[in-house]
Specification:
The chain is of the alpha+beta class. 44% of the residues lie in helices and 15% in strands.
């Protein structure tokens, strides 16, 4: 199936008539007749509805929770530049939105087009939107299509979006998420291994003592995040966590902190997490008869091993060696 035939009509803005308004938001025009209300729009054929753009009150809009995330493209300067462009040249591409029910203040939820929404909100300008009723899976599909062609979205930011889709219950399983993604995406087809690594990497957000210091996740390498998550999740004794916390404190207090990207910080934390103990282990040893008992204290753990000829081993020698080892530990 071709790229254009596969995608929903609402995803495109090409050849779409620009809405005109008499000052009242939530009205539209198909450039062939008078302004029409949104209720009238709902009674039009589906094909015609997909070709119409609404001008809606910016104050009656909010971002969908899946679109409201840390995003490398939503910087203050980027929003200000886009707002200036919209002020001078008008909004060229409509956002994609869905109706909201049960909220007297909010009528629409922006599914795709966060930067355009933020720019119009900054200058207090009504926003052009294609409005369509969508459930969460349909909305997520639209968002994936909207972002599919963007080269400024990093692999880690895409991983965060996929992780959120699972955490929010939009998809019930990793397999369902993978199938939905590969059906919608033209350029990025993931394998089970790819998506598993991405979802693991995105669990970095669950470590708040790290994530609260992250402002620009786009610079984080997926593999660095994945390996750090695995190290922290397997840290049953707290040794790795203590190393990472100590390293993060040193980074934040250093003069070079502002020069480091978030990706460099995560790479530094990974190195700290994987650093081996340089302190020599404490070793105790005791022997009786044909058995030798050795105790090793390292990284907060004390491991006892015994060696000897099992055919000659007797309980008195073994228990005596253990007692001698215990006496040495107490000294």
């Amino acid at each position: 199936m071709s790229k254009n035939s596969r995608r929903p009509a609402l995803a495109g803005a090409k050849d779409m008539p620009v809405a005109v308004s008499d000052g009242n938001a939530d009205k539209l025009s198909d450039n062939k007749g008078p302004l029409t209300t949104l209720d009238a729009l709902s009674r039009q054929p589906a094909q015609k509805r997909s070709q119409v753009v609404l001008e809606v009150d910016i104050n009656a809009c909010r971002l969908w929770k899946m679109a409201d995330r840390k995003d490398e493209g939503v910087t203050k300067k980027a929003i200000e530049d886009l707002a200036q462009s919209i002020r001078e040249q008008e909004q060229r591409v409509p956002v994609i939105a869905r109706p909201v029910e049960g909220d007297p203040q909010i009528k629409y939820e922006i599914v795709a087009g966060r930067r355009r929404f933020e720019a119009c909100k900054l200058i207090g300008k009504n926003i052009l939107a294609i409005v369509k009723s969508m459930d969460d899976q349909e909305a997520f599909a639209v968002m994936m299509i909207e972002n599919d062609d963007r080269i400024d979205i990093s692999p880690f930011t895409r991983a965060l979006s996929l992780r959120s889709a699972l955490d929010e219950g939009i998809y019930e399983s990793q397999t369902a998420l993978l199938e939905a993604h590969n059906e919608q995406s033209s350029h990025r087809k993931y394998t089970k291994g790819n998506i598993s690594k991405m979802l693991t990497a995105a669990r970095l957000t669950s470590f708040d003592f790290i994530w609260r210091h992250i402002d620009h996740p786009s610079t984080i390498a997926v593999d660095d995040a994945r390996r750090l998550v695995i190290a922290l999740e397997g840290d049953h004794e707290g040794v790795v966590s203590r190393r990472v916390v100590a390293k993060l404190a040193r980074i934040n207090s250093s003069e070079s902190r502002d020069a480091l990207t978030d990706g460099q910080i995560i790479a530094d934390l990974l190195r700290a997490a994987l650093t081996l103990d340089v302190v020599s282990p404490v070793v105790h040893e005791a022997a009786r008869g044909g058995v030798t008992v050795k105790g090793v204290l390292k990284a907060g753990k004390y491991v006892v091993t015994a060696q000897g000829d099992l055919s000659k081993l007797n309980d008195d020698d073994f228990m005596g060696a253990v007692k001698d080892l215990y006496d040495k530990i107490k000294q």
